[in-house]
Structure formats: C-alpha cells, structure tokens
Specification:
Structural class: alpha/beta
CATH class of the largest domain: Alpha Beta
Number of strands: 14
CATH architecture of the largest domain: 3-Layer(aba) Sandwich
Shape: globular
Distance between the termini: 44 Å
Helix content: 25-40%
Radius of gyration: 23 Å
CATH topology of the largest domain: Aminopeptidase
C-alpha cells in the first residue's frame, strides 16, 4: 500500500484500477478500469462478523494485514483445474494485448471506484477520494493559468511521492526542481542562488481539520476548522517540531498581510495534540533550497481515507490564496 493508511478502511468497497503497462509489442498501454458505470470493479474482501471473533479482538492496526489486502479480480475457471488465473490473463490479452510477462512492468494503483458527491443538507462540502492533495494542486494550477502578466515570475511545482518521503526522480528530494530553477535563471542570466534567496513558496498541502467525533486527539484552540478558510501552518512535524522546516515569524507576518490585503479567509492550525503523532510536508525540501516556505492548505476531515471531506468555501479560498501569492507586488 502507498503511504499512511488505515488498512481496515479499504476492504469491502468497490475499487478501480489506474496505471500503465509497457509491452514488448505495443509499448505503453494506459489502464483505467472501474470509473465508468459500464466498467467492472475490483474488491478486497473482509471476514464476515459471524466468524470474526478473533479478528475483532485485535487492535485496529492489526485487524487487516498488508498482505491481507488481496484484490479479487475474477472467479471463473479456465479449465478443469479450477484456476481463474488463465481466464483472467486471456481477457487481459484480448482487450489490451498484454501478456503475463508484460505485467512485470505494470504500475497499477487500486483506488475507490466512488464518484465525488456534495456533502450535507446544505451541500457545503465535497466528499471524494484523493482530496489530499488535489484540492490544493488544482487551485494552485487554476490560479496560475489565469495570470496575465505578473510582476514577478510565478511557478507551480507539482511533485510525486510526498507520502513516502519525496524520494525518486519525481519527488522533491531529487534535483529536478533545482535543475529547473537553474535552467530558468540561466535563460534570464540571473543567479539561481539569488533567485531562491528572494523567493517565497506556499507548500500547498491539506491540513487536518478539527473533528468533534474524535475531540480527544485535538487541541481545539490550536486546530483548523471546516468553512473557516485556508489553514496556515507555521510548522508541522511530530511531537513538537521534529522534522519540520518551521517558517519564520517574519514570513508568517508577510503571508498574513498578503492574505488579509486580498480578502482571503484564513486561519492558523496544527494537526492535533502535540504528543498524539504528527505529519510532514514538502516544506522541508523547499527550505533546503534556501527558499522561504510556509504550509498553506485546505482543512480536511478523514485524511488518507477512501472518502475525504472538505468544504467548498475553503477550496475556493485556496484558489484565492494562490492567486494573491502569484500577484504579490
């Protein structure tokens, strides 16, 4: 599984498959199965409660093992040996031209096959999979695409692998972003070190919203709330400031003025009680480039679950916050 999840949440729900496979004959083949109403879906079974006594006596973290997250993808046998595998492989080859040997290249992800829906009688929220971190990335991109001629260079950087440490060539621990900045500065005959030193960055990632159903995990006075605007987080980390970039007071003051001047509704907040756990963002990687960075994002309920909940107004304020940053004088 990918990143920090509660494994028990991923059983007994419909799943879709997304990804790519590279074949010897056809090269890259894109896979998307389960999103259309006419598509089949996939499934991870759970033990029926009638015989689940021992399972339910375990801790939540042990009720479903990582190896227990086996995806059911078929049941009809191909021959008298009662083996569905050959029939499944024949269907895959018939539709995609993919052979069993090609599957070694497969990069497939199982995600909830559940459509986004408005939440609440007042329709004030959006319930969907993958809010973390689409509801920050999309507003950042939308605001950038609407720019006409900003006074300063505006950049939106989208990185992969944040949930597993930002490793690999597509993560922010690689030199890809630094190389991009160097190339950009070289074209303008500007020193890249000076560019970084004079830059400001929003680490656009969701924040944990206060959940009254689990109030024991939060400090109400230092939490973010739904429908109160974007959450500005000075530092993340765990058990204090461990693993955090910790934005300066000067930067926080600058961002507060920027948001206020542009009538962006915002709030400050932490992830939860200081000794309860914690989380991190790519702010640490950005700070290593000597770029002033602070976490700004949308408060979120049920983070990392199959269906997350966010307020529409907070998502809109995220767009407004990004637009204000890009247009800063």
């Amino acid at each position: 599984y990918y990143g920090g999840i509660k494994k028990y949440q991923w059983t007994a729900i419909p799943l879709a498959l997304h990804g790519v496979v590279y074949t010897k004959d056809k090269g890259r083949i894109d896979i998307s199965i389960g999103e259309n109403d006419s598509d089949p879906v996939f499934y991870i079974s759970d033990l029926m409660p009638h015989i689940g006594k021992e399972q339910m006596e375990k801790k939540l973290s042990e009720g479903i093992s990582g190896e227990g997250l086996k995806i059911i993808n078929g049941s009809i046998p191909f021959d008298d040996e009662d083996n569905p595998k050959l029939y499944i492989l024949s269907l895959i080859y018939e539709k995609y031209g993919i052979k069993e040997a090609d599957l070694i290249t497969a990069e497939l992800t199982a995600v909830p096959a559940i459509k986004s829906r408005e939440g609440g009688f007042d329709r004030s929220m959006i319930a969907a999979y993958g809010h973390d971190d689409r509801i920050c990335a999309y507003p950042a991109l939308s605001a950038l695409c609407e720019l006409e001629k900003p006074d300063k260079t505006a950049i939106a950087m989208f990185a992969d692998k944040e949930e597993i440490g930002s490793e690999g060539v597509t993560g922010l621990r690689s030199s890809s972003f630094r190389d991009f900045l160097s190339d950009l500065c070289d074209m303008q005959r500007v020193c890249v070190r000076e560019c970084c030193r004079n830059s400001i960055c929003f680490s656009a990632d969701v924040g944990g919203a206060y959940d009254p159903c689990y109030s024991e995990a939060y400090e109400a006075a230092n939490s973010a709330y739904l429908n109160k605007g974007v959450v500005v987080t000075k530092y993340t980390g765990s058990r204090g400031k461990s693993g955090s970039s910790d934005a300066s007071a000067e930067l926080l003051s600058r961002v507060a003025r920027l948001l206020d001047d542009n009538e962006v509704v915002w709030q400050s907040g932490e992830y939860g009680k200081v000794d309860q756990g914690g989380a991190g963002t790519v702010a640490t990687e950005i700070a290593m480039l000597n770029i002033d960075v602070i976490d700004v994002g949308v408060p979120l309920l049920s983070m990392h679950s199959p269906i997350e909940l966010a307020a529409k107004s907070d998502i809109y304020m995220m767009y407004r916050a990004c637009k204000a940053l890009y247009n800063e004088k």
